[in-house]
């Protein structure tokens, strides 16, 4: 049985406007740009039966061409910089980018590492940030509800 739905969080004005255009159904392409995999475990939990992010209109898809939003984890490694930029360009507009986890926001514990090109915001424009190392599933679901408006 899924947890009872908490109250819908408010999202900042530009995101809320885009969310309205997406009409409550947001397809998400996840990109691991260099994560330790901790954030992925929590994303899996957010989409699992307890937190069940899909009931709010968020769904993971396999191709950026099918997506409305990118959820990016990890610092952006040098090997993933071009791939992330190309994935972003493959998402049709209007598109949103979520930087999920402290590494995605500001490189976190990997700041200054030789293989790190930068934070997600240094490579593609970021609309929403989710803090935490890793963020809890509740925080991930809340951020996704900000995109779906549900
Ligand atoms: S924020 Fe923490 S859990 Fe997520 S990729 Fe970075 S080190 Fe791993």
UniProtKB/TrEMBL annotation:
Essential cofactor(s): [4Fe-4S] cluster
The family this protein is said to belong to: Belongs to the complex I 20 kDa subunit family.
SUPFAM superfamilies xref list: HydA/Nqo6-like
Keyword Iron: yes
Alphabetically ordered keywords of this record: 4Fe-4S, Iron, Iron-sulfur, Metal-binding
Record bears the keyword Transferase: no
Classification via Pfam families: Oxidored_q6 (PF01058)
Annotated protein name in UniProt: NADH-quinone oxidoreductase subunit B family protein
InterPro entries associated with the record: Complex_I_20kDa-like, NADH_UbQ_OxRdtase-like_20kDa
Domain NADH:ubiquinone oxidoreductase-like 20kDa subunit: 36-145
Classification via Gene3D superfamilies: 3.40.50.12280
